[in-house]
Design brief:
- The protein is mainly α.
- It has one domain (31-250).
- It has helices spanning 3-26, 31-57, 63-83, 98-102, 104-130, 134-161, 166-191, 196-222, 227-250.
- The longest helix is centred in the middle third of the chain and has 28 residues, at 134-161.
- The model has no long low-confidence stretch (mean pLDDT 88).
Length: 252
């Protein structure tokens, strides 16, 4: 596997999240704006899981193998969210009230550990996707890049709200988001010579995690406020990835 394309994908994902965290310190934004970004990003993740990864994996896996791989990804994120901390600060943004944010020092390490697991899976997915056809490669890359922006915004806002200074906040964001690069490098090393079956299982595992994130991104917002805005943004994100996959398949 050529390292350069993988490096471009994982470094860009890191840069998007880091830049978004920087914006969170400079720009004032309403919950409504963050809601749009979170829901749109969640829609792209569901779109890549259903339209991009699942059809490709079914060419190498039986249906039960696909479900097993996806189930393992969903279960991993569910266990981490249950017993460590929610794996995505953006997906759980509505669950943080002002009092909880001010107590960030009490659970900051757990939050960073959970997000590091999430980011590592993102990096692995970018590397695995690059080994597949253009439809999977581009859709996985687009979905993760889109999701990284609200992820960085939410993480930066949480850290600032918890009393961390701007410089320290950016350092912490850089540290945790660098695990995206670590995951990508691990994927580049591991996936270059594995059989198609194991590569498909790795992608199915990532798809299960994406499904978990998408579900919680939507449900976390839809029962709070802006129901129609959430649904419209989520549908737009899903449609973007579906259109990208369709274009890749129809392109001569």
């Amino acid at each position: 596997m050529n390292l350069a394309p993988v490096l471009i994908r994982i470094v860009a994902a890191f840069a998007i999240a880091f830049a978004a965290a920087g914006f969170s310190a400079l720009l004032s934004r309403s919950h409504k704006q963050l809601c749009v970004l979170i829901s749109f990003g969640g829609g792209t993740l569901l779109g890549v899981a259903i339209c991009g990864i699942a059809p490709e994996c079914l060419q190498a896996l039986r249906w039960w193998q696909l479900l097993l791989g996806a189930g393992s990804g969903y279960l991993l994120f569910a266990i981490v969210s249950r017993y460590v901390f929610h794996v995505c600060p953006a997906c759980a943004a509505s669950h943080f009230d002002e009092a909880t944010t001010h107590r960030l020092a009490e659970f900051g390490l757990a939050m960073m550990l959970a997000l590091a697991i999430h980011c590592t899976i993102d990096g692995l997915a970018l590397a695995a996707g690059h080994e597949e056809k253009a439809a999977v490669d581009l859709s996985v890359t687009a979905a993760i890049w889109v999701h990284k922006f609200p992820e960085g915004l939410a993480l930066g806002a949480l850290l600032l709200g918890g009393g961390f200074g701007r410089t320290r906040m950016l350092g912490l964001v850089a540290a945790v988001e660098s695990t995206t690069i670590l995951g990508g490098l691990l994927g580049w090393f591991a996936f270059g010579s594995v059989p198609d079956l194991w590569l498909a299982l790795a992608l199915a595992h990532a798809a299960g995690g994406f499904f978990y994130l998408a579900l919680h991104a939507m449900l976390g917002e839809i029962f709070k406020r802006h129901k129609m805005l959430v649904l419209a943004s989520f549908a737009a994100g899903f449609s973007l990835i579906a259109a990208l996959v369709l274009y890749c398949h129809l392109k001569p």
